[in-house]
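okkk here we go again. third time trying to get the S-adenosylmethionine bound version out, last two times i messed up the smiles copy paste (missing a bracket lol). double checked this time i swear
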Amino acid sequence: MRGKFVKMLRRDLYRRIKDALLTAGFPLIDAREIYRIASGKNIFDTNFDEMADRPEVETAKKLTEKRMSGYPIQYICGSWSFLDFELEVNENVLIPRPETESVANCAIEIIKNSRMKRNINVVDLCSGSGCIAIAISREIGNASVTAVEISAGAYEVLTRNIKKLAPRVIPVLDDIFHYSETIEDSCLDMIVSNPPYVSLNDYSALQKELYYEPRIALCDEGDGLDYYRKISEEYKRKLKKRGHIVFEVGDNMSDEVSLILREYGYGNIKTMKDGFLNPRIVMAVND
Ligand SMILES: C[S@@+](CC[C@H](N)C(=O)[O-])C[C@H]1O[C@@H](n2cnc3c(N)ncnc32)[C@H](O)[C@@H]1O
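finally!!
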């Protein structure tokens, strides 16, 4: 957004934000969000013939430039929607993705369609913002959902999201591979996890915007499959007989993750597609 910080009509302010972002290839929603944050109004409640004051114009300019540098719109907003709720997000947590909505929905459907009727124990491993744990807890009234997260910064966001959106979720600040030692065998009805799955090789070639998200949320520092192997192995005995495991997997990983589950003795292994018809969910049963 070029030009001086002068007073201008709201119409002109919005047009400037929009022109700058659309010309640079960003979507219209980004312009609307930045206008909303700067002016405190969404475009549908705006009288475009009013003057925007100086702080509004300055904030709009600053945020537009920040976005144009590649900084994610979700972090600029400080919150992002997931299914039917709005999660706080900041640079300490992975931005919730649409494919993860499919994972949460899948886990919810499994619970609803199964014979798990009372005192259901679910653990969300690598919980981040808490999107999956919170979605399950809001839908399944009788589920006890635990959300395990290792990063202290993410844990702060997780606890605030839980308090606001699903206070029955139990947050745990721990390494999932230590947490497994603290719980009894055969105590879980379901494990759900969207672990870091970008390999060390792929990490260096990610899109620029992704580097604003925590490395620990994206990269497994190995071949991309490390967490699937370790979770499948270490948590198998924590699952009840016929208990379920539901993984989000990266693009083109569903076959390899299915193979891992088979190797560790899980049965009824299935791959499901997300809303974009990509095979991003792999689930199995503790036979
Ligand atoms: C891919 S993100 C998923 C976040 C959230 N579940 C989602 O779907 O948006 C992985 C998360 O796992 C956390 N994490 C990585 N290694 C972990 C470990 N060993 N134990 C617990 N959490 C871990 C990261 O800090 C990050 O928040």
